[in-house]
């Protein structure tokens, strides 16, 4: 085989030296290339590749014919024409002559390539697919090569000819074209406010605002992008190629053909291939650095020394050995940790280890807990720490002899020696004031102002609590919950209720001095529900009537949280506040807020202030709550702006959640709200938690993203942490990592259980280390990468203009792919965009992230909605961010009602919709049932009991319960999805071409954005040009 031939990929659990023979790095420094630097770091030169390797032929000429190529590692080719213009001159370029049919034919025949490599098919290896080269022709667009397997269905040729303009790409990002090495600050794309004009990021001049992330296009108007009721248009339209500028002659030439989605990497195909590979399999965790199945696959985990991927996932499972390699590749090094994740019923629950009064065995130096990475020596009398290499004495009670392999003979009898995840019972040394904790408490705090009474909200809350309190979370095996409950109502003043079991009637005590908040009663406020059931029922019946005639519309908010903190502090327990609130707090009291929603700030450098919470009272409250184990869950029912960025700052620092129901009406939002409330109250949770992540020598945890509070640089404080909350941890190099020993990390979570017991939950994970970038790239996990990028970008918008944040996302995408192409991929013509196999759908997720509400600049998006999504994402796990950035679009019109299988999802694009179709779309937060205008009458009759689609009522949020097989099947699918997801979702039934359809279309993430932003196809073209700039 030629030098371009395939080198068989090793099992990915082992680091392999010297793959492919390509040099690491970007070559020696000292070139005269333009400089490209990171924020706050020195500029570095980016060297061109060796002469002739990637040099473009003259503009207008077809590329040199290619022979069949084979890839060295798993990657995909997307090919572009060689006659690409420089980005810096793109908009001012004169029109080029239309290519002749013969030129088109020559180019098409020259670009057909097929590349394939043998794969490691072992179960523990990285999932791989046949890599196919997809070429770009200036007149026909994306073309699947002859003889190559199609990605989904039969590949089609088709794209609009651009009448002499370059193929669809993007202009420079309002600044100089990129040239230079990756940002030196590799792991963290948003280190701080950038100096103006640094490293290829220039500030755009006036009038450059346009489609999201790209400059305004000449001759284009916003009305061209968003048609009334039409949503974003799928793919380029005549005279409008995607979200990017075109040459002045773009309307001339032969008729345009539609681009073929099947010719570019498909998220659906990647998910389906992974599902088929792992479904029904047992994933064992006994191999260092193995890449787990995707979060979308169903599989069982057997813990054999590393934590389950349900608890910990990494952006890559092979760390670069040196900081220089990390800077070069730009792949962030991070772990996403969901410490209290729920395990499926077919997996073994975590073992609880109790060492009595002596407590857990730890390293004397680094304080790491006993785990499988500790090496016992000297006949078992000592152990060497796997994290800091310190040698420790083994306590007498813990001594055990070693077998012929140097392993303790009780290895399989002790979970801490053989498993990746387990729990220790904590001693009094781990408790506040060296006292065992009291059982936690839930306090329900209800806003009884005029709007909440009038809407019926207070009544349905009180009715729901009667049944919900019977289902308070409890420790597995316990007969009943030991959680105590308390009740507060408020408007301008606070009402506390004594519900002691001996009372015939509940007693109300009013606190009107909100400036100096205190709890007027101790005994009788926090009670056991079962003991005080009759009194609590009486209270919940009376509250709606008690305030039925209120005219009070002003409310307080900060004193409500303060009252909850004081109550928990007085009871010496941790707990959670459930606050039901409706309006911006305008009453004279601490924490009073003013309306600061200024649409004039949109698309300016001051837009970031809209996301920043107001400091002072709420900042101090967050610290008090974290210190006292008081978590806050906020249910908001606003009819206008409430400054959510400030009001949600306490929940977002205490492990809490924020739920929002705009213009609440019981008939419209009631079921949605009640499902959320039930899920929230009943979920498994730990209180008063502190988490620390320890690592082996050579790297360390440097940054943390989540609904957490940081008092110092190492301790992650969470007043509560539930089974859905995740913390994303970023790592940086301290020193060189050794390939032989790998890299280890240990997450230790100290928390109070539902029964009031103090415990330590330990998760251990070992990764490979490699000096070969190819190992790093094929060990990447795209879903985890996007979780990190989303959280780091959403934090960055607090301090940087949105335009800069979007530019950094695009630039980092280009750098990651440019580094892969230069150092890992086989030599290939410059017309190809080479994607690592493990990251071939990375661009579609990144483009979707850039079109999310917090990162688009539109005056049409409510500020509170943008702030809400920003804060929600910060605590999300990998599963949630994956679904948020690529919703599931499920066709229901052709399914078999008698089958138990869920129909296979299709690509999230308008091209997949059909006039006679019915589709269900969900992203974990919203759910739509879309009905085509030509939907068959029998389908409408079977689901809605209506003769035709025209009889369907607008604003439907629930499906009627009919006895037809189709109705039962659709309702079953909806119910299953509502049960699986972290949050409840409100169902929207929308008809094609109705006005509400515009809400549905904004979730078709492969199309152009509703509020600006490129289609997936256009973004790929733009990334290709950015990569090309870096490599020439």
UniProtKB/TrEMBL annotation:
Localization: Cytoplasm, Cytosol; Cytoplasmic vesicle, COPII-coated vesicle membrane; Endoplasmic reticulum membrane
GO terms classed as biological process: COPII-coated vesicle cargo loading; intracellular protein transport
All residue ranges annotated as the Gelsolin-like domain in the record: 902-973
Pfam families cross-referenced by the UniProt entry: Gelsolin, Sec23_BS, Sec23_helical, Sec23_trunk, zf-Sec23_Sec24
Chain segments carrying region Disordered: 1-26, 232-261
Domain Sec23/Sec24 beta-sandwich: 686-770
Bias kind Low complexity: ranges: 246-255
Topology with respect to the bilayer: Peripheral membrane protein
CDD domains per UniProt: Sec24-like
Record-annotated Sec23/Sec24 trunk domain positions: 437-681
Name this polypeptide is given: SEC24 homolog D, COPII coat complex component
């Amino acid at each position: 085989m030629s030098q371009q031939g395939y080198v068989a990929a090793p099992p990915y659990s082992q680091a392999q030296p010297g793959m492919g023979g390509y040099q690491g790095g970007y070559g020696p420094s000292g070139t005269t290339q333009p400089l490209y630097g990171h924020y706050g770091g020195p500029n570095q030169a980016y060297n061109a590749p060796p002469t002739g390797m990637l040099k473009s032929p003259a503009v207008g000429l077809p590329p040199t014919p290619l022979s069949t190529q084979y890839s060295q590692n798993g990657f995909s080719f997307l090919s572009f024409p060689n006659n690409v213009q420089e980005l810096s001159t793109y908009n001012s370029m004169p029109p080029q002559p239309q290519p002749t049919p013969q030129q088109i034919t020559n180019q098409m025949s020259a670009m057909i390539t097929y590349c394939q490599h043998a794969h490691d098919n072992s179960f523990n290896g990285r999932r791989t697919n046949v890599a196919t080269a997809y070429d770009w022709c200036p007149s026909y667009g994306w073309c699947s090569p002859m003889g190559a397997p199609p990605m989904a269905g039969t590949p089609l040729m088709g794209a609009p000819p651009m009448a002499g303009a370059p193929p669809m790409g993007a202009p420079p990002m309002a600044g100089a074209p990129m040239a230079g090495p990756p940002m030196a600050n590799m792991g963290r794309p948003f280190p701080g406010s950038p100096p103006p004009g640094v490293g290829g990021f220039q500030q755009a001049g006036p009038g450059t605002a346009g489609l999201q992330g790209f400059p305004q296009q000449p001759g284009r108007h916003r009305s061209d992008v968003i048609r009334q009721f039409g949503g974003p248009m799928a793919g380029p339209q005549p005279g409008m190629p995607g979200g990017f500028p075109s040459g002045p002659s773009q309307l001339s030439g032969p008729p345009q053909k539609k681009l073929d989605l099947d010719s570019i990497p498909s998220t659906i195909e990647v998910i389906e291939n992974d599902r088929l590979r792992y479904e029904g399999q047992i994933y064992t965790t006994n191999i260092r650095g193995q890449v787990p199945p995707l979060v979308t696959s169903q599989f069982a985990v057997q813990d054999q020394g590393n934590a389950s991927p349900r608890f910990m996932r990494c952006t890559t499972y092979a760390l670069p050995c040196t900081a220089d390699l990390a800077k070069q590749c730009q792949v962030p090094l991070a772990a996403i940790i969901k410490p209290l994740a729920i395990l499926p019923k077919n997996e073994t629950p975590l073992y609880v280890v109790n060492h009595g009064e002596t407590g857990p065995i730890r390293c004397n130096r680094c304080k790491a807990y006993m785990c499988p990475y500790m090496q016992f020596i000297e006949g078992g009398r000592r152990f060497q720490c796997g994290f800091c290499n310190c040698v420790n004495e083994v306590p007498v009670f813990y001594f055990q002899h070693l077998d012929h392999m140097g392993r303790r003979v009780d290895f399989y009898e002790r979970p801490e020696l053989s498993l990746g995840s387990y729990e220790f019972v904590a001693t009094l040394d781990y408790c506040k004031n060296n006292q065992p904790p009291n059982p936690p408490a839930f306090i329900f705090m209800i806003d009884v102002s005029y709007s909440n009474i009038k809407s019926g909200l207070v009544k349905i809350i009180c009715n729901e609590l009667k049944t919900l309190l019977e289902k308070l979370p409890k420790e597995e095996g316990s007969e009943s919950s030991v959680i105590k409950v308390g009740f507060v109502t408020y408007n301008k003043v606070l009402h506390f209720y004594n519900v002691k079991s001996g009372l015939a009637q509940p007693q109300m005590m009013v606190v009107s001095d909100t400036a100096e908040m205190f709890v007027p009663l101790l005994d009788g406020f926090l009670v056991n529900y079962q003991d005080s059931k009759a009194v609590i029922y009486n209270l919940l019946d009376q509250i709606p009537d008690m305030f039925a005639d209120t005219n009070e519309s002003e409310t307080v908010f900060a004193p409500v949280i303060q009252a909850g903190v004081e109550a928990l502090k007085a009871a010496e327990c941790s707990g959670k506040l459930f606050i039901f609130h409706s309006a911006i707090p305008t009453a004279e009291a601490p924490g009073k807020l003013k309306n600061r929603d200024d649409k004039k700030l949109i698309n300016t450098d001051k837009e970031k202030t809209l996301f920043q919470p107001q400091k002072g009272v709420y900042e101090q409250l967050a610290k008090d709550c974290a210190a006292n184990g008081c978590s806050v869950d906020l249910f908001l029912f606003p009819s206008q702006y409430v400054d959510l960025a400030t009001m949600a700052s306490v929940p977002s620092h205490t492990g809490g959640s924020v739920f929002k129901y705009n213009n609440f009406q019981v008939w419209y939002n009631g079921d949605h709200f009640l499902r959320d409330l039930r899920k929230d109250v009943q979920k498994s949770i730990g209180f008063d938690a502190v988490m620390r992540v320890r690592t082996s020598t050579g790297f360390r945890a440097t940054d943390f993203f989540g609904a957490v509070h940081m008092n110092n640089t190492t301790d992650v404080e969470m007043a509560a942490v539930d089974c859905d909350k995740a913390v994303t941890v970023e790592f940086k190099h301290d020193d060189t990592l050794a390939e032989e020993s790998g890299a280890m990390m240990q997450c230790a979570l100290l928390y109070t259980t539902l029964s009031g017991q103090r415990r330590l939950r330990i998760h251990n994970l070992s990764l490979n280390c490699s000096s070969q970038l190819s190992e790093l790239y094929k060990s990447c996990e795209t879903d985890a990468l996007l979780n990190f990028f989303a959280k780091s970008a959403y934090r960055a918008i607090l301090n940087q203009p949105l335009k800069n944040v979007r530019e950094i996302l695009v630039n980092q995408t280009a750098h990651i792919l440019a580094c892969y192409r230069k150092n890992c991929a086989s030599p290939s013509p410059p017309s190809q965009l080479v994607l690592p196999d493990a990251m071939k759908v990375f661009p579609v997720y990144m483009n979707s992230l850039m079109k999310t509400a917090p990162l688009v600049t539109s005056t049409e998006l409510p500020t509170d909605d943008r702030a809400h999504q920003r804060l929600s994402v910060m605590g999300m796990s990998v599963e949630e961010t994956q679904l948020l950035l690529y919703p599931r679009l499920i066709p229901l019109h052709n399914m078999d009602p008698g089958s138990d299988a869920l129909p296979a999802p299709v690509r999230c694009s308008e091209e997949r919709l059909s006039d006679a179709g019915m589709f269900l779309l969900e992203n974990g937060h919203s759910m739509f049932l879309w009905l085509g205008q030509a939907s068959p009458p029998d389908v409408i009759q079977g689901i809605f009991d209506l003769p035709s689609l025209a009889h369907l009522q607008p604003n439907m949020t629930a499906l009627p319960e009919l006895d037809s097989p189709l109705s039962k099947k659709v309702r079953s699918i909806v119910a299953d999805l509502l049960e699986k997801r972290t949050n409840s979702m409100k169902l929207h039934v929308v008809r094609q071409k109705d006005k509400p359809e515009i809400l549905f279309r904004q979730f078709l993430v492969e199309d152009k954005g509703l509020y600006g932003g490129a289609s997936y196809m256009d973004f790929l073209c733009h990334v290709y040009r950015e990569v090309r700039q870096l490599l020439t």
